[in-house]
Amino acid sequence: MTENATVCSHQTSMGDTPLHRLEKALGPYEKKLQKQEAFRRRLGVKEVDQPTYLRYITGDIERFEKERMAFLCMRPDNPHGKELRRKFKARTGHDHYLTPLPYEELDIEDRFGRSLADAAYRACCEYDPEPFPVTPEAGRVEVSNSAWMSRLIKKMGLLFGAEMVRIAKLDQRWIYKDVDIGHKYAIVAVVQHKPSLIDLAPSYFSWSSSADVYSRLKLITTQLTDFIRGLGYDAMYRETRGGGEPELNMVPIALDAGVGEFCRTGRVLSPEYGNNMRLKAVTTDLPLLPDKPIDFGTHDFCMACESCAKYCPSGAVPKGEPSDDIPNPVHNNPGFRKWWINAEKCIIFWGMNKRKWPSCGGRCIAVCPWNKPMNRFHNTVRWLAVHAPHFIKKLLVWGDEFAYKREKQINR
Ligand code: SF4
Ligand code: SF4
Q: What angle do CA 73, 76, 79 make, to 5 degrees?
C-alpha cells in the first residue's frame, strides 16, 4: 500500500494530518450539516430502524418495468401506452405534452416563461458526460472509517450545490427491472424548487423551477461521481426522470436515506422542504455508512390534510385513506395499500393548455402546508404539525388555506 493510500483511514477529526486543510475549508458545510441535524432534533424527528413506508406494503414487491411509467408510455412506440396516448390526444388534441407550440402562439408573459423554462431545462437534457475513469488500485484511497467518508461525501455534495445529502443502502427492489446496478449505496442529493416560482403552478414559471433543479442535480451528481472515481471507487450518476432513460425509483430510495416520509402526493415529504424538492442519486461501491429512515408523523398529518387532493387540477391525487385500488394497473405494481396518484389524469392535464404550461409544474407541491420558509414562526407551526393532536392539525390546515387564499383550478 502506498503512503497516499493509507492517508484517509485515520482521518476522524481535524488535527495535524494531511487533510486538516481540507477539513477546515469544508467547515461551512460541516456547520450546515450540524444545523440540519439540530433542526431535526428540535422538531422531534425520530431516526428509525425500519422505514415508515412499510405500513403501505401489503405483498411482494416486484421490480417495476420502466416502460410502464406513464412518461415513457407517451413515446409513440411504447406498446403499454396505446390507451394513454389515445386518451391524451382525444382530450388535448396533441400527441405529447412536451411538443411545444410556436412562440407566436404564446402571449407575452408565456414567452418569458417558456424562454426561462427552456433555458433552465437544457443542461439536464443534454449534459450526459462520460465520468472520469476510476483511479487504479495503486492510487486508491483506502477507507477504514466509513462514517468519516460519509460525512465528507455529504459536505462535498453541499459544496457542489445540494441542499441536503443523505445516504441509503441500495435496495435492489427500487432499481427498475432489467437495469443492472451492482453498487451497494445510493447517495441522494436534494435541491429545493424556488418556492416563489413553484407557487405559480401550473405555469411555465413553475415548470422552469423544476427544470432548473433537474439541471442543477445533474451537475451535482456528475461532480460527486467524478470525485468518488478519483478516490478509486466506482460510482455513477443515475437517471431518474421519466423524460430520460430512468434507472432508479427515487422515492423509496430517498425514504430509505431518511430524506423524508411518504406523503399523499406519492412524493417524499421532508421536514425542511415539504415535498417542494427534487432528488437524484449517485450509486457507488465507496465504503459508506447509510443514514437511517425517519419518522415525524407524516401519515397522520396527511390524514388531517387533503390540500394536494383538493387543489390538484386534474383530480389525480386521492382523498381519504390509503387504498388497495390501483387506478392505472399499467403504470403501477400491486403489493401496496397507499395513496395512488392517477398518472393518466395528471399527464393528460399537462397537455390541456399548451399555451400556458408544458406540465402542471406541481400544484400539488405548491399548496402543501409543509412548503414554508425555515423561520421561527413556521418552525413553531412545523412542531405543532408533528406533535399536536388531529384536530389541531386540521386547524393548521384550515389556517394555511385561509392565509394563502387558494383558488381551485378545475379541469377534470
Ligand atoms: S402535478 Fe399537477 S396534475 Fe399532477 S398530481 Fe400534481 S397537481 Fe395534480
Ligand atoms: S398537501 Fe397535505 S395531504 Fe398533501 S402531501 Fe402535503 S401535507 Fe400531505
A: 55
At 278-329, the pLDDT tens digits run 999 999 999 999 999 999 999 999 999 999 999 999 999 999 999 999 999 9
- Point out which residues pair with 88 in neighbouring strands: none
Task: For residue 65, give every residue at least 6 positions away whose Cβ sits within 8 Å of its Cβ, in sequence order, or none.
Answer: 176, 177, 178
Separation between Cα atoms, residue 8 and residue 3, nearest integer Å: 10
User: Dihedral through CA 273, CA 166, CA 238, CA 118, nearest 10?
Assistant: 30
Rg (CA), the chain: 22
Look at the pTM and tell me if it is higher than 0.85. yes
Ligand 1 center–CA 364 separation, angstroms: 5
Whether the CB-CB separation of 111 and 102 falls below 8 Å is answered with no
CA distances from 208 to 154, 197, 362 (A): 27, 8, 11
Which among 261, 267, 269 is the best mutation to test ligand 2's pocket, defined by most ligand atoms within 8 Å of the CB?
A: 269
CA atoms within 13 A on the CB side of 1: 11
Which DSSP symbol is given to 129?
Answer: P
The CA 313 to ligand 1 mean position distance, Å, reads: 7
Does residue 2 sit in helix, strand or coil? coil
